[in-house]
Give the backbone structure.
Amino acid sequence: MSRTIRTIFLGALLSTTMVVPAFAAPPPALSARQQVQHLLRRFSFSASPQEVTAVQNGGIAAWLALQSQPGKINDDGSELETLPTQLVNGGYPDYNIFERAVVQHMILTPRQLQAKLELHWLDHFSVGLESVGDPAIMYHYDQVVRANALGNFATLLCAVANEPAMLIWLDNNWNVGPVANENFARESMQLYSTGLYRLNDDASQKMGANGQPQLNYSQQDVRQIALAMTGYGVVIDPNNNDPQTRFSVQYYTGNHYSGKLTFFGKTQKVPNDGTAIDYVMNIVAHRQSTAPFEVKELLQRFVTENPSPQFISDIVAVWHKYENAPDQIAQVMTAIANHPDFDLAYHGMLKQPVESVFQSLRQMPGAMQGTADVTPGDSLLWELNGLGQQLFWPVSVFSFYRPGNLSGTVNTGTALDKTGVFANITSAQPSNPYTDTYINIATLRANIGSARGDVIAAYLMDALLDGGTPAQLAVLQHYLGGAPSDNDISGAIWLLLNAPDYAAN
Amino acid sequence: MINRRNVLRGLGGIAMAPMFMQSVAAAEANANGTIVVAILLAGGNDGLNTVVPLAHYGDYYTLRTPGPPPQGLTLAYTQADLAPNAFNTNPTIPPSQSNEFAFAPVMTDMRTLYATGKLAVIAGVGLPKQEENPLSHLNGQMDWLTGQINIGETPPSGWLGLTLDNVPPGPLGNTASLSGTTPLLSGATAQGLVINPPMDYFGVNYSVTDKWKTEKAAFRKIGALPTVSASGTYDQAVLQAALADMGVVHKIAKTHEAKTYQLNSWLDYQLRDIARLIEGGAGIRGYFAEQGSYDTHSSQAQYQPQLLQELSFSLLQFYSYLQAKGVSSNVVIMTMSDFGRRPAANLDFGTDHGGATVSFVLGDPVTGGVYGNYPSLKKFDGNENLKMNVDFRNVLSDLIVAMGGNPTQILGETWPSLGFI
């Protein structure tokens, strides 16, 4: 077979923009079950068939209302390990334990909308353990992100900006004038809040008289804002052995730049009392371009990589309506789910690698169904690393992929690598000490309640492919035979996890 | 029987046979064309501490010493440390007689390469309109990868992919990335091969049960069935392409193991596999590799030297390997980076986003030396950054010409040759 065929075949599908095309025409109306499955894939890390049925019976509105108030959902048992409270020999008993705790929680928590937003904000406010150095500081960062995930954006932005992990990651730690480090000032605007270009409410770029996009801020603004946020330092208490409490952020008035500060065309009275970051971030959070910038990114991660201008501006209106509300983000997410464009995006975007793994572990019963019979441990982190999306290790300040470029995570290398990751998850057994994340076939059998191959095949198709197609079902039934063994069922799950349609979110 | 042609017909029935019949002969014709290996130094490499202008050492030292005495801390290398790596525009002049420039002290391997007369140093290379641009990583990288400027948020095709659009493909196509998907290699019609090193593991893991042959058959069958979504179709296209390439990649991996190749850094892993693919006759003309993290806002002296040492070692080893295998004659290696860094160091002893930097071009077809004027260390642009003297597109233009492409068509403008190739 010639390479020419490969080139044209791929070329016809992988367009120059590297964006998966949306449906040319609206998809057929979704069944009630598909609507729920779609919602649970986008607003959670998916669910088992039993849970899908429960949401179907209770109604989407009720699920959204409850998920919007995570404090009302019992979260006990969503972290399976006890986090260390004492350092051992000045180091950590298990360097990965804090990251593992975050991953466990995302999979096991019934507060799924919060968990999904936690992932979104970790992507958005990307911070890497490699630079931060201390996994406990990273864990603390995650806890702050999680606590504010459904809250108010300006509050979230301020909280994140004051975190030790962020101060270290983008060099605002021990930043002093008059030759300040500009890293956080620049990225906090370009990536974390308001964006590089001035935007209309539908997120289109405002164009200048020269026909070029208007810049949202200048290099001079960056420089002045960097000076405005000087004075902070992360301090480690050498007498405190608790890895989760031994660090704090201190403010040093003497390190704060005391000269005149002018940014965004205005002379600013930046306080020299430890609220300097809040002062700047609150201005940035409420700039005109921030709402469309943030809304577009939310839509690109939760709904479609190509949201329509109308969709964006509709949600921007909601963003503004609740701009000062403590549950602003929850209100925005509810509006997104209720928007007509939401269902049009059914299967219209790819899964993130981490979504593929988390979803598989929630759709299949057993190991990750909150029964605490299995600790998803280091092996799960290895699997995520193998797929290029280990949460505490973003590849750059852009995180794992830039919004709108999810297809960049799918290439010939990852297409083959994921077969190995799913092989590890589906083939592992509880007795295997080296692979502690797996799909529990015994529990799966109990949930299915039948040993017949056709019944098992239909269950798996519903759980993993929303029912799939008759042709896919026929392949699976043939593979499973009449009375499949545990190994056969593992193999069948692996087949579906690698089926192209499973890549669709 | 599932193969690419059947799947293709299922998806739209593009007529393939004539091109298929042409491809073998075309691949042979393609074998001797210029191969470009593009390496992105991600994060924005500080050119001033990579190639130090010895002739302006005083200005350099002042800029790189942010604290007032008696603090005395500096990012500047000493003249004594720089001396062994000193060089002049003429590569034949030894370090002891050179007084124009010097590679960073850790870049002894780069100095060795320079002496071969096959390493071009492009000084003062950068992005135009940088004074209007808030020095964004994304914009800088996208500019270099696409050959365009001020492209906003849209990822278009890359200059290398476009250059190879009309070139008959080899057994593994025209392009390969050893560092994930990149717009650099996207042409008008195709996205290329991506291998996550080492290439020895480029394959399907069927080890789910003890019946791997059964798994394999079912996997191939379900993977080729019609999909229900655009996303599924996209994933399927990538998967089928990967399956189609697997055999050739495995064969090259087995027959060209490069056992003596030293793997000291991730860049070595990438370049080793590129060397194996070239040696194995993959027919690929455009490669992408990446090295980070050059975003040295703080404690630069702790990080940048290590990266530069890795880079120097990797380039020398790669080039030497290709020469030893007799396959270096048409290979050109080039480096690019988001932007340079601020000439004046900050009080974190790092450097913020800047303007002009340096690029390296290496290979048998290259005429070594220094190209472009080193930027002034006294007169800066409006953001107090080094002024660009060589538009980055000028470098790309020369490479495109070397590959037989049309730079005006791809870059939108015409550039005079810099003369390094």
Q: What stands out?
A: Chain B touches chain A through 110 residues (CB under 8 Å).
